[in-house]
Amino acid sequence: MIKKEDVYKIGMFNKPHGIHGEISFTFTDDVFDRVDCDYLICQMDGIFVPFFIEEYRFRSDSSALVKLDGIDSSEKARMFTNVDVYFPTKYAEEVEDDELTWNFFVGCKVEDENHRFIGTITEVDTTTINTLFVIDSPAGEELLLPAQEDLILGLDRENKLLTVELPKGLFDLDSLESYD
Fold it and tell me: Which of 61-87 are b and which e, b meaning 16 or more Cβ less than 10 Å from the residue's Cβ?
């Protein structure tokens, strides 16, 4: 069974295209084109389900037409309308560091330079000029951390652990827990 922590969101299927089962796909990460993985994952009725890619073709740098295996009509493709698309984290780890997208960090645990646990990244906000990591803290608070490369001290990809240097005064450090 595929778990939420094993995947990260890369886009959304939009609507059927044509009569042969192609689906319009808007994506924020083209990792499916850069690594050797022949399926995408959709959340259907609360369960993560893999669907094998028969073929795809790009329409722009953020959209493509995708033909899934076994989906051969517009009626079958219609069930994918407005469905979120995920990618397996294990394949994304094959991507070189300089090719990582911010979405890779969703699900990472975050600690500061003194190994104090800050929380877990639940999403990446790219709606403003400054990209932000949205972090769920142990206290249940939502924290916003600038997603700037110069604040990232280290990334343990195997354990999905991000070590950051916090800007002075950004969070109340007394509320952070130290862990070993």
Answer: eeebbbbbeebeebeebeebeeeebbb
From the list 28, 18, 13, the residue with the least C-alpha distance to 124 is 28
Of 5-9, 127-131, 157-161, 174-178, the range with the lowest mean pLDDT is 174-178
d(CA 167, CA 173): 11
Q: Among candidates 33, 23, 151, which has minimal Cα distance to 92?
A: 33
Q: Could you tell me if 8 and 104 are in contact, meaning their C-beta atoms sit under 8 angstroms apart? A: yes
Per-residue model confidence (pLDDT) at position 96: 58
Choose the final residue of a domain: 94, 123, 140: 94
Q: Which of 94, 120, 135 is the last residue of a domain?
A: 94
**Same domain (yes/no): 87, 130:** no
In this predicted structure, the answer to whether residue 89 has a pLDDT above a threshold of 60 is: yes
The residue to which tokens 């899934």 are assigned: 68
pLDDT band at 8 (very low <50, low <70, confident <90, very high): confident
Question: Position of tokens 């995947």?
Answer: 7
To the nearest whole percent, how much of the chain has pLDDT over 70? 88
Given pLDDT bands bounded at 50, 70 and 90, which one contains residue 114?
confident
Largest interatomic CA distance in the chain: 59
